[in-house]
Amino acid sequence: MSVPTVEFSDERLPNGLRMLVAEDHLAPVVAVNIWYDVGSKHEQPGRTGFAHLFEHVMFQGSAHVGKAEHIALVQAAGGTMNGTTWLDRTNYFETMPSHQLELALWLEADRLGTLLDALSQENLDNQREVVKNEKRWSYDNRPYGTWNEKLQGHLFPPEHPYHHSTIGSMEDLDAASLEDVRAFFRTWYAPNNAVLSVVGDADRAQVREWVDRYFRGIPANPSIPALGDLSLPPTLGGERREVVGDRVPLPRVYFGFRAPVFGDERLDALDLAGQILAGGKGSRLHRRLVREERLAQDVAFFTLGFVGGASISAGWATVRPGVDVDRVERAYADELERLGLEPPTDDELARAKALIEADELGALSRVEERADRLSMYATLFDDPDLVNRVLPRYFAVTGEQVRSVAADVLVPDNRVVLTYLPAEAAQIEQAA
Q: Does the pTM of the predicted model rise above 0.85?
């Protein structure tokens, strides 16, 4: 099967900054994407939430850019921008009209080189409150909002850096001092800890000239700390369960499993398993739980790929009103077990591959996604050409490989079950 190839250059500045450039002159737009090899897994106990807090601080100005001016300048130039934080990385990105590329590169270089010149106690306090409000809105006060951090807490032991969520704790955010934040920036925000990707309507030689002009003078950090051994046993060694009373409209059952690391070909097979189990209305879980037996309002199953010791496979079923929660859990677990016993049919496997192919090709048709994936594969695997090999890997997965990984991973002694119940029902359940 033919897969389009992303052609790119790969260079390093003397200070260690890795620069990837992929020209695409189809439309007059260009994407700038910079990944820093720092995420919540790099945080220390008592200092959780720093990586995400810094994502917010990075928009508060630098030596030559005023508070919130980064956003204003990009938008005034007709561009869009944002930043995100995850367990394994933090990234920042702009999509610009191609004649505004130099502005985006200068903005990224200025905050990497001079952010500490503008960092103040007022800015820190302001963004600390913004992050705390985000935690309340997205986690604490949102129905089912705590499922992800609860799964992480159960699937990873307390000493593992994936045990805590990216958002961090209120207590640690309150305790963050200005010097703590300065030290975090000086440690991790260095050109030799970053990958810059530029994709779209740009000339490679011109990009190289601008990147050299604006980034070359930023010094490297020769002493970036190395993480310790993050390896974990492949399974939990027993089932873990928690009943959560919450302000939720309907009960929901979450399943979580410790899975192979991102980059392991068995995780590719689990991605396909997710499509077979819950990829649309033709999937096994949807067909049985939603359409045929009418037990659930909706179902999901997917993987969250991490590079440090283990990933997560997870899913849920929202219980239909009047249906017994245990019945939904049993039906969901039956389908997971069945996949470990019986390989998918040829039609199921072909459908799953077609769904993944559509997702991948749709993403790669956008310059911002190509830039993000080049940065991702360079940062996490030192191999940006993976952007061209991922789809062929999915195409090569067999039905027996899907069955085998389901039999190894989707099993009771590797399972976390979270049952969200409306608060009053949860009190009754826990009392019983």
A: yes
Q: Rounded distance, CA 352 to CA 416, Å?
A: 25
- Going by pLDDT thresholds of 50, 70 and 90, the confidence category of residue 348 is very high
Four-point Cα dihedral 404, 408, 411, 413, nearest 10? 170
Q: Would the pLDDT of 1 be above 70?
A: no
Return d(Cα 51, Cα 86) in angstroms, integer: 8
Sequence letter at residue 263: G
Q: C-alpha angle with apex 168: 163 to 172, nearest 5 degrees?
A: 115
Residue 425 has pLDDT above 90, yes or no: no
- pLDDT category, 134, cuts 50, 70, 90? confident
